[in-house]
Amino acid sequence: MRHISRRGFAAGAAGTLSGLLTAGDAIAYAPEGDPGVIRRPQRQFRGMWLATVANRDWPSKPGLPAERQQAELLAFLDTAVQRRLNAVIFQVRPTADALWPSPYEPWSQYLTGRQGEDPGWDPLGFAVREAHRRGLELHAWFNPYRIANHTDPSLLVPTHPARLHPEWVVPYGGKLYYNPGLPEVRRFVQDAMLDAVRRYPIDAVHWDDYFYPYPSPGQVFDDDAAWEAYGAGFPDRAAWRRDNTDRLVRETALRIGKLKPRVRFGISPFGVWRNRATDPEGSDTQAGVQTYDDLYADTRGWVRKRWIDYIVPQVYWNIGFTVADYARLVPWWADVVDGTGVDLFIGEALYKAGDPAQPAPWQDPAELSRHLTFDRDFPQVRGNVFFSAKEVAADRIGAMARVVADHYPTPVRPPR
After folding, report:
1. Which residues are 348's β-sheet partners?
2. Which strand (E) or helix (H) includes residue 170?
3. What is the DSSP-derived secondary structure letter of residue 271?
4. Tens of pLDDT, residues 48-71
5. Are 168 and 162 in contact (CB under 8 A)?
6. Can you give the pLDDT at residue 42?
7. Alpha-carbon distance 163 to 169, whole Å?
8. pTM of the model
9. Distance (Å, rounded) from C-alpha 296 to C-alpha 245?
10. How far apart are CA 232 and CA 25, in angstroms?
11. 275-325: per-residue pLDDT in tens?
């Protein structure tokens, strides 16, 4: 059976003909009578996140000459090719700023060390061009609401939208956020992100797990005024907040579909939607955070409503971890996407491999390879994404090399 994809949903809503997502790409099977050949999918998503917030992966530090920044970026793209990956998820709007010449927001401080300062080149344009030259997809990664990793608006450039519209801003947990409850905020952040879709041949729009902020003990996210203005008709503030997040997802999906139907839309949420103890439809986990309840993000609902093209739950735990077992979460997510036409890729915590602060399973170079072996039993899992680029390159204990040796014998194309 075929299902309408997010692109089809958007086009249909716009009154145009919608495309249908083919129910599965071709699979390369071993020739009959040749048991020595392993069955492998012809298409599989093999991605890595390339984080720029706080210079996590790139640039290695702010203020480097353009040539050095470019050389570092090319090295990461070349590493992706060497590891037989086929997609890079590049963070281009980490904190209400831009890694391209945006008419909406200032240049990112992570480039030059000073917000708003032109670095003298276009990182997003360069990344798209060079990724495509290497046969890699480039997914542009945006953070919708985070403004700054501090609470002092005076540290933002004077022309920053958050300073021009202080009524949009909520300080919380030591950071500044745009208020998701304001329609004008939702429209603005969409406009800012879609500027990149309009101007560059990116392959996808990608969001991570930050919607309403993660809970900060003893603090309150002050959206009282917005709740008073727009909360009528909702049973409680939590339902209203979830609707705000739903609106952002749905509206963005529609606008991408109208603007460039071939651009995909994917989200990589925290790995637990709800615990089973909270909701019988939830996963068999005891996680301290539930996206539905704490981040006001109905990640399962977005898949079931087919608003997105792919989902990458961050299943950042080892097999057998009591509170959130990889081997219990992957089947749960496989069931969520089954029959929807939404692709499922699993987010992998490569950064934990070899970290002495992590439990024993993460000291074993084979742990991540076992994850991909486990995933083979679930045809709904169409790939994996590794956090993040710095670890893909350094590969502290050889966990990534083990994944490549065991699971990536040849290059393949990502699903489409």
Report:
1. 386
2. strand 169-172
3. S
4. 999 999 999 999 999 999 999 999
5. yes
6. 76
7. 9
8. 0.91
9. 7
10. 46
11. 999 999 999 999 999 999 999 999 999 999 999 999 999 999 999 999 999
**Structure tokens of 27?**
């699979």
Decide if 125 contacts 138 (C-beta within 8 A).
Answer: no
93, two tokens: 């709007």
Q: Coil, strand or helix: which one is 156? A: coil
Phi-psi region of 84 (alpha: psi -120 to 50; beta: other; left: phi over 0): left
For residue 100, give both structure tokens.
Answer: 């391209």
And the tokens for 260?
């460039």
Please list, in sequence order, all residues whose beta carbon lies within 8 angstroms of the beta carbon of residue 205, skipping any fewer than 6 positions away. 139, 140, 142, 193, 197, 252, 256, 263, 264, 265, 266
| Integer Cα distance of 125 and 201 in angstroms | 9
Pairing status of strand 45-50 against strand 87-93:
parallel
- State how far Cα 405 lies from the chain centre: 26
- Provide the residue type at 64 as one letter: L
Which structure tokens are listed for 115? 């917000």
Q: Is the peptide bond before 59 cis (omega within 30 degrees of 0)?
A: yes
